[in-house]
Structure formats: C-alpha cells, structure tokens
Design brief:
About 10% of the residues lie in helices and about 25% in strands. It has about 475 residues and is α+β, with helices and mostly antiparallel strands.
C-alpha cells in the first residue's frame, strides 16, 4: 500500500521586494518544497509566490485539520474518525469535505478546493489563514463503479423497442443490456441513451494549445472499460452542436466507392472474386489515417490509460439478402451485398454490441488478447449499432439525443453495396438521422477510445464537474 500525500497549495498575495527576494532565494536553494512529517502522513507544503501587491504571509501552522474521516464500505455513507491519513486507494470526498472560519462550521470558505489529483495526492488549495478543515476520504471506485453509483436508475430496452427514438432527459439514468444478444464480446454492457447531462469526461489535451479534450461516454463495456466519443476541446465545456464537436478536418473513407472492399475501416483487394481477399486488413482507409495522425499528435502521453482489448467493430458479416441472415455471402467485387449492420438497424431494428467476426473485424492493437490486432493506436469510430442503442433510428430525425450535433459525421459500420454499383457506409446526419452514403463523400470525424477498466474517476459527469481520470 502506498502512503498518500497532502499538498497544500496556499497563496497570500503580496509584494515586498526585499522579502520576495529572500523567499525566492530560499526556494531556489531548497527546491521550493518543505516536507513536514506528522504521524504516518506526509504533508507537502508548497508556497506560490506571485508578483502582486502586498506581502507574503504564510506559515504552516495557519491551517488546521480539525478532523478526518474514512469511509468504511464502498458506496455507503458510513465513516469512522481517524487520526492519520488513510493509506492506499482513497480519494477526498469533494462534497462532504470543507474548510471553515470557525469550529461551528457556520462560515465556509467556498473558494477552498479539496480534491485528489491524478497523481494520488490529496490537494488543498485556495485556503485562508486560520481555516479549519474537515476531510472525508472515500474508498476509490473504478470508473465503472463510480458511474453506476452516480446513476441509480437502470433501465432496459428489450429487443423490438429500437424502432423508436429516445429523446427524453436521462440524467441519472443508465441502460443495461437486456439479454445476452445485447452483450458485447466480454459480457453485460451498460450504455447511455437519450439526452443525459452527466456522461461528460475531460481527458487528455491538445498538445498545440494545452486545451483539455472533452468526451461523452457511450457505454461501459462488458470488461469494465469505458467507451467514449470525442466531443470537442476547451477550458469550458464545448458546444453540443456545430463543427467544434468533431475534428477540424473532415474525411472520406476512400477515394472510390466502386467495390465491396471500400466499406471497411481497412480493406483488401478490390474487384476480387473472394470475400476473404476483399476484406483483408492490408490497406488502411483514409479516415483511419486522419484518426491515427490526430492520436499521435495528442494522445500518446495518455496511452497508459487506454484499453487495447476493447477494440472497435467494423462488422463486415454479409448477405445477398437485406433480411440476412448475416454470413460470409456476397461481399466481393460488385456483388449486391447487405452488411450485418444494415440487416440489424435498417431492416430488423435490433442492434447488437457483439462483433460477428471479431477475429477479422474487431480492430485492436497488437497488444490485445483478441481481435485482428492490426491497429497502430487504440482508437477508432462509433458503430451504427451504438447510435441506435443511444436513441437514434435509421432514416429518422432525432435532434434530442446526445449524439446529435447538427453536423454530418461517419460511423465505422459498413452498410451495403447497392444495385447501381456503389458502396455505402453508415453516418449520422445534421438532423440526427442514421443513414448511409458513399465512402468517397467527406464527412466529420469523431474519434472513439476505451479507457481501461482499472482507471478511477473523480467528478460527477456534468459539464461543471466532468468525470476525470484519477
């Protein structure tokens, strides 16, 4: 068990040239950090010296921890008083903890920030002199446990109910896969649908300007990892509509749409006489190149938090009939073909989280235990099935679910190769319709990633307190 730290980030504004000089000189000599050891806990005392008017007045004994409490059971409002900081995986409860001007807790310092950062340090910042602080420590939850604890209403959508859009506000609500036909390749899935206000995540940053990257949670995968779709950047929560919800560059899938090969996230030999040759993973699509380039520029430092196993399904199960069943029938040359997602979401209105031919169509990196292991980076796109689970319906307007952005953007699900000799891939349009179009058309790009199952979250998923990896 590792020993946790408290970091005091305190500030008294002031400027006195003589004192500031000596303070800065001392900081240079000792590295600006003084460790004060108390019982079993380490308290890190950090002074921040600004150039402002006034004088610096900070003493380590100005701040008083009046009491500390440790949660005794996950997700329970039961605490015991403690005299030393908890060791191991604990986080400050930001709602219960607080600092006050008096021991009666009548005058609260609303500017004080008490939280546990990504390094596992318990941080106390923006304190006032003589503040009396009460700290509550919760047992750290996995991201899955945290999301389910925050969403106490769990609904199910049975097969046969996916022909209707979901538009209602679903804050505090999450959906559970109703039966095994809706599980993914790892197990039971929990997913968001409708218009939730609490599936926001802030994770990573744009390297060129240090702006944080915002995401919306699509679902908790069967293995406990968290699937998220790109939703914009910025210090404040991004807009839910407009070009800011997608990457700055639009993209085609391929420059051609004249063969069955061009429906895939990667492709084989176009014009062949074999399904296997047509749908190898030897040639990357153009949109894959755009996504990989963006990942390489912005998310390589966050790779340790990302799952290699969860993958991204570009299902190319195929049939020469629009009603299926999905099989390796057709799918080559210019044979009229209906791919698995078309049969499920356009015809039967019965989506799935499973990937029919995972060994070929579940896109994973070479570190994964399953899938095709052809990706360089653990990043992909949303599927047409996931759009339907979220509340969309094929060829039906829905401007009131969280995947609506008033813009066109691609999914990674093949649709069909039609009778006029054109391939089609599913996309979401500016009215929230799920539809399909030629892969040679240029639409928006919204990357999707999977956080590992063992990451933990702080926050509550709202735009004012988004989930963040800790």
């Amino acid at each position: 068990m590792k020993k946790t730290n408290i970091k005091f980030e305190t500030l008294r504004k002031g400027f006195n040239f003589k004192k500031a000089f000596y303070v800065l000189l001392i900081i240079v000599i000792i590295g600006s950090v003084v460790i004060v050891k108390g019982s079993k806990a380490n308290y890190t005392y950090q002074e921040i010296i600004p150039f402002a008017e006034g004088e610096v007045h900070i003493k380590k004994y100005d701040f008083k921890i009046m009491a500390m409490y440790e949660q005794t059971e996950k997700n329970k409002d039961n605490y015991k008083e403690i005299t030393t900081m908890p060791e191991g995986d604990y986080v400050i409860n930001t709602t219960k903890s607080g600092c006050y001007k008096d021991s009666n807790k009548e005058t609260k310092n609303n500017n004080a920030k008490l939280y546990t950062n990504a390094a596992g340090e318990h941080v106390m910042s923006k304190l006032d002199k003589e503040d009396k602080c009460y700290l509550y420590f919760d047992i750290k939850l996995t991201a899955k446990e945290k999301i389910l604890a925050d969403h106490t209403t769990i609904n199910k959508r049975q097969s046969g109910t996916f022909g209707s859009v979901v538009t209602e506000s679903t804050t505090g609500t999450i959906y559970e896969s109703a039966d095994e036909s809706q599980y993914d390749d790892f197990g039971k899935v929990y997913y968001f649908a409708g218009n939730p206000g609490d599936n926001w995540v802030k994770f990573g940053q744009i390297k060129s300007n240090s702006n944080p990257i915002w995401w919306r949670i699509i679902r908790i995968n069967g293995d406990g990892s968290i699937r998220m779709i790109y939703a914009g950047t910025g210090t404040n929560a991004p807009d839910t509509t407009g070009s800011g919800t997608q990457l700055s560059s639009t993209s085609t899938f391929y420059s051609s749409n004249s063969g069955n090969a061009y429906v895939g996230y990667m492709s084989g030999t176009s014009g062949s006489t074999s399904y296997a040759e047509e749908h190898q993973n030897t040639t990357p699509s153009k949109i894959k190149g755009v996504i990989d380039e963006w990942y390489n520029a912005n998310l390589t430092d966050e790779a340790t938090y990302l799952s290699d196993d969860a993958g991204f399904c570009g299902d190319r199960s195929s049939s020469t009939s629009s009603s299926g069943p999905a099989a390796k029938e057709g799918g080559y040359g210019k044979t009229v073909t209906y791919y698995g997602a078309y049969v499920r979401v356009a015809n039967k209105k019965d989506p799935t989280f499973k990937c029919t031919y995972a060994s070929n169509d579940l896109y994973t990196t070479d570190k994964a235990r399953e899938g095709n292991r052809v990706l360089q980076y653990p990043i992909g796109l949303i599927t047409a099935d996931e759009v339907v689970f979220a509340g969309g319906v094929y060829n039906t307007t829905n401007e009131d679910f969280y995947l609506y952005t008033n813009k066109y953007y691609w999914t990674m699900s093949p649709s069909d190769f039609n009778s006029v000799g054109r391939a089609n891939v599913f996309y979401v349009d500016s009215n929230g319709n799920l539809n399909s179009d030629y892969p040679s058309i240029s639409y928006g790009v919204r990357p999707v990633i999977n956080l590992k199952a063992d990451v933990s979250f702080t926050g509550n998923g709202t735009t004012t307190s988004p989930y963040e990896v800790s």
